[in-house]
From TrEMBL:
GO terms for cellular component: cortical granule. Residues 259-371 form the CUB domain. InterPro entries: CUB_dom, MetalloPept_cat_dom_sf, Peptidase_M12A, Peptidase_Metallo, Sperma_CUB_dom_sf, ZnMP_hatching_enz. It comes from Chelydra serpentina. It is found in: Cytoplasmic vesicle, Secretory vesicle, Cortical granule. One of its GO terms (biological process) is proteolysis. Keywords: Cytoplasm, Cytoplasmic vesicle, Disulfide bond, Fertilization, Hydrolase, Metal-binding, Metalloprotease, Protease, Signal, Zinc. Residues 59-260 form the Peptidase M12A domain. The lineage of its organism: Eukaryota, Metazoa, Chordata, Craniata, Vertebrata. Pfam families: Astacin, CUB. PROSITE patterns: ASTACIN, CUB. This is Metalloendopeptidase.
């Protein structure tokens, strides 16, 4: 593919400092790469909105079905990825990349898998800037990561999310209700990065905390002057690159018609899709329960899944942690009946529900609450060796 040539710049301003301290982001996270985009004249590509490569034939707005990664029969959207050895050589790089991808894999039905022979795949390469194509383009497509500018979980996720078919949050059709673009402070020639598109907003709200939102001072021509000001409250932080927001996750699952969720209230109830009517075939749903500080108690208030030998057809599985690599609290379970309460050892628990292509039942309803003891836990990336091994989380 023609590589867009780009020179990078950094925006370092007071407001970034504020956001950084609010989110406790290490200092290098603030230096979001800014592409100044001299497009190669022979290229059939052009960088728009700072870091998105659009092929000229494709409308930026109309990502048709060929632009989305296909869903396989198990309900998962598998996106093959190849990571440059340049990144694999260094533990810190491969850890960031692995953790960024793991979060998609855990929270959404998009599963980044190690590319073997697949025709359509993403190649993560070192770049002079941070950039990506918009949606699946067919064949190999690159995601460029600048070693000094976008080596943070959220910045990597930002570029990967472009490749899944997402634009910048502040380019949404309804953005004028939520932010004001301060055109007088936008660097001359960079106004194109602040365009508004006739986007499909998926029926989900505008998200200031999206990893797809620009920072307040991006492309500013004046130190300390914001180019994007949230309205009505200008102090709302924007531009975080800590990790996918709840709405980022919801939007990915909605766009790809999946059913995974993050639950973060101290107590909540959830159920299979359509409960108490029949759940759909070929679904693969996850509920990540991630509450502050306390261990989690889970109980099933109703349970009715298609029975099968060894529960190979439809089943529930519960993990004591935040990914399908975590230890199993409750292995494949199906049929009808009452289940014992489950207790996570810490403040994260993952509930997985899988249905096959035939015979559904009413499904389940479950509720959880928090224990009294403090038991918070930050999982370290246990997949930082994905350059050497398969990053696909096998069940
Ligand atoms: Zn972008």
């Amino acid at each position: 593919w023609p590589m867009p040539s780009a020179s990078e710049g950094m925006s370092r301003t007071g407001n970034h400092q504020m956001i950084r301290s609010l989110l406790s982001i290490p200092s290098f996270w603030q230096t979001e790469a800014r592409d100044t985009i001299p497009v190669h004249p022979e290229s059939d590509s052009t960088l728009q909105e700072g870091d998105i490569v659009f092929r000229r034939k494709r409308s930026a707005i109309n990502c048709d079905s060929s632009c989305f990664w296909p869903k396989s029969s198990d309900g998962l959207v598998k996106v093959p990825v190849n990571v440059s050895t340049e990144f694999c050589k260094l533990l810190v790089y491969r850890t960031w990349i692995a953790e960024a991808m793991q979060e998609f894999t855990t929270l959404t039905c998009v599963q980044f898998i190690n590319r073997t022979t697949e025709t359509n795949y993403i190649s993560v390469v070192p770049g002079e800037s941070c950039w990506s194509h918009f949606g699946k383009i067919g064949g190999m497509q690159q995601v460029g990561l600048m070693k000094t500018g976008c080596m943070s979980k959220g910045a990597i996720q930002h570029e990967m999310n472009h490749a899944l078919g997402f634009l910048h949050e502040q380019s949404r059709s309804d953005r004028d209700n939520y932010v004001k673009i301060m055109w007088e402070y936008v660097i001359a020639g960079e106004q194109g990065n602040f365009g508004k598109v006739n986007s499909n907003n998926l029926g989900l709200p505008y998200d200031y905390s999206s990893v797809m939102h620009y920072g307040a001072n991006d492309f500013s021509n004046t130190s300390g002057k914001a180019t994007i000001v949230p309205i009505p409250d200008p102090s709302v932080p924007i531009g975080q690159r800590e990790g996918l927001s709840n709405l980022d996750v919801a939007k990915i699952n909605k766009l790809y018609n999946c059913c995974s969720n993050v639950l973060h209230k101290p107590n909540d109830t959830f159920s299979s899709v359509n409960y108490p009517s029949s759940y759909p075939d070929n679904s693969n749903c996850l509920w990540l329960i991630r509450i502050p500080q306390h261990q989690i108690f889970l109980q099933f208030d109703a349970f009715d899944l298609q029975p099968s030998p060894d529960c190979t057809s439809d089943y529930i599985r519960v993990y004591d942690g935040s990914s399908r690599n975590s230890s199993v609290l409750l292995d494949k379970l199906c049929g009808m009946g009452s289940l014992p309460s489950l207790v996570a050892s810490r403040n994260v628990m993952l509930v997985e529900f899988v249905s096959d292509e035939a015979t559904a039942a009413t499904g389940f309803q479950a509720s959880y609450s928090q224990g009294e003891d403090s038991a918070s836990f930050t999982e370290l990336g246990d997949i930082s060796n994905f350059c050497l091994a398969n990053i696909h989380v096998q069940n």
